[in-house]
Amino acid sequence: QVQLVESGGGLVQAGGSLRLSCAASGRTSRIYAMGWFRQAPGKERESVAAINWDGGSTYYADSVKGRFTISRDNAKNTVYLQMNSLKPEDTADYYCAAARHNIVPSTITSFQYWGQGTQVTVSS
After folding, report:
1. Of 93, 103, 73, which is closest to residue 6 (Cα–Cα)?
2. DSSP of 65-94
3. Degrees (nearest 5) of the Cα angle 73, 77, 82?
4. How far is residue 34's CA from residue 72's CA, in Å, rounded to a whole number?
5. Greatest CA separation found in the chain?
6. How many CA atoms lie within 13 A of 106 on its CB side?
7. I need a surface site. Which of 4, 31, 46, 118 has the fewest CB within 10 A?
8. What is the pLDDT of residues 18-45, one digit of tens each?
């Protein structure tokens, strides 16, 4: 199995920055593409960003393009999400996920492993 643990969430003012981290453990040889997703209260979970195994292919939701950057360090089995110029509408629970495929972008349902989430709150 694969375990994913997110960290780095918190409360920040609009215009501020946060860096989320997601550490993978267990049978990490099974995972290739990784992604960040978010779910705001009363809304469906949505894709934020994704990255393939070697970082050569990335995906960003239109709402975060130019503000968020996804990256990974395979030696540390960790994926990051640098979030700049945060807006109140970025407030949500952020989840890390990993897939056994290496396709970016791909559907939410194609990611097999999920973390527990970390909360991000952006105040206006």
Report:
1. 93
2. TTTEEEEEETTTTEEEEEE-S--GGG-EEE
3. 50
4. 9
5. 42
6. 20
7. 46
8. 999 999 999 999 899 999 999 999 999 9
